[in-house]
Amino acid sequence: MKYYTAENYDPTTSIGLSLSRARNVLLAEIDASLRDIEITSQQLGIIMALGRELAGTPFELSKMLDIDSGLMTRMLDKLEKQDVLLRVRSVDDRRSINLQLTRHGKHLVEQIAQRAPDVINARLKDFTAAEFREFQRLLAKFISA
């Protein structure tokens, strides 16, 4: 079924704008909660993925977080300068780089893990448990379409 047509499409009321606004509001609130530890919401994904061992290379992070390789390189450069992570050459393949969190980076994982859920939970406070599950289901369905 087509929900939008050339005749009824209004960008100011489209689901696209709503999703974009939701993302922007959430990221702004997460950025505010992390400002004192000098981490952004974009950097959060990298730090948490490494801390939870969901990814270990720039390529894996790029794919997982849907960030192009150029931006990923710049973000990793900044995090390396902030002493959050280290680039380590792979023993198995010298062309490959593995990423490791520093002691400071591991400490940031703990701080982020305490702050980010509070921001998201504040946005979800008026959802019932059933609405939360349905919201997750519908977002997953929308993303995979």
Please tell me about this protein's structure.
The chain starts with 14 loop residues before the first helix and ends with a helix. The chain is globular and about 55 Å long. 61% of the residues lie in helices and 7% in strands. The protein has a single domain, classed as Winged helix-like DNA-binding domain superfamily/Winged helix DNA-binding domain (Arc Repressor Mutant, subunit A, Orthogonal Bundle), CATH 1.10.10. With 145 residues, the chain is mainly α. A two-stranded antiparallel sheet has the order 1-2. It has helices at residues 15-34, 41-51, 58-65, 69-81, 103-123, 129-144; strands at 85-89, 97-101. β1 and β2 (97-101) form a beta hairpin. One of its GO terms (molecular function) is DNA-binding transcription factor activity.
Structural class: mainly alpha
Residue share in β-strands: 5-15%
Radius of gyration: 18 Å
What average pLDDT do the residues reach?
A: 95
**Cα distance spanning the termini:** 13 Å
CATH H-level superfamily title = Winged helix-like DNA-binding domain superfamily/Winged helix DNA-binding domain
Number of helices: 6
| Tally of domains | 1
Give start-end ranges of low-pLDDT stretches: none
Placed side by side, the strands forming the largest sheet appear as 1-2
Shape: globular
Helicity range? 55-70%
For the secondary structure, the number of strands is 2
Listing every helix as H and every strand as E from the N terminus to the C terminus, the arrangement reads: HHHHEEHH
How would a crystallographer describe the biggest sheet? 2 strands, antiparallel
CATH class category: Mainly Alpha
CATH topology name: Arc Repressor Mutant, subunit A
- Label the CATH architecture: Orthogonal Bundle
